[in-house]
Amino acid sequence: MAISRPVVDPMKGRIARFADLKRNGTPIMFIDSVLPGHYRMNFSVVGDTASENPDFRPMMTDPHKFQIGMFEAPPGNGPGWHTHDYVEMFMPLTGQWRFCWGIDPDDPDDLIGDEVLGPWDVISFVPDVWRRFENVSDTNSWGFAVLDPHIHFTGPDPRWPEWMIRKAAEQGLRTDNNGRLIKPGNFSELEAEITAKINGRVDGPWE
Question: What is the chain's Cα-based Rg?
């Protein structure tokens, strides 16, 4: 006689559908997110993906030995000049993206190299190299990121140059010493404004 017993599905919580992901974006995940040229929607699939905003919601919460994020940006937009102390890999999913890198935190135009990549191309940034990238297509485009495992809110991450920190502070955004975003009183309004710009519902320069 067979004995029935409850079965715990080992795959529970390990499927993330794109339709659900698109409703789970964070328009202000980093202090540069409010600066022209750096508007983008960030999505956490596995882990924190270097977020400064503690309200990020990963689609998969079980521990993994890697972290995965996705992002959507309008034309001319992408992350500002920054670095990490771990490996960060990117793959464009749609459109064309220009990736730039260098060693001078104070000059994002003093480059060691740059490349324009398209769907299914891959670039992997080594730790401590300064980098930025932007959507060089004429429509919103998507990308995919894989990061080394790391613990969030133990220090500044990403590491920004001082001039970027000052520019973000002028717009009301800064972090504490652990890299956690300190939200201004108008944060909800800022989120709505940036979301509208990402979605193309607000006219204005992207750069």
Answer: 18
| CA–CA gap between residue 158 and residue 147 (Å, rounded) | 12
Tokens 């064309």 sit at which residue?
96
Residue (of 51, 126, 118, 119) closest to 88 by Cα position: 126
Q: Would you state the pLDDT for residue 163?
A: 98
pLDDT, tens digit, for every residue of 174-187? 999 999 999 999 99
Q: Which amino acid is at 22?
A: K
Instruction: Write down the pLDDT at residue 50.
Output: 80
Alpha-carbon distance of 27 to 187, in angstroms, equals 11
| Dihedral over Cα of 50, 115, 139, 202: its sign | positive
Q: Rounded CA gap, 71 and 110, in Å?
A: 26
Tokens of 101: 């890198």
Q: What is the DSSP letter of 132?
A: E
The Cα angle at residue 31 between residues 167 and 63, in degrees rounded to 5: 160
Q: Give how far Cα 20 sits from Cα of 17, 23, 44, 49, 58, Å.
A: 5, 5, 12, 18, 11
Q: Which domains does the chain have, with CATH numbers?
A: 26-197 (2.60.120.10)
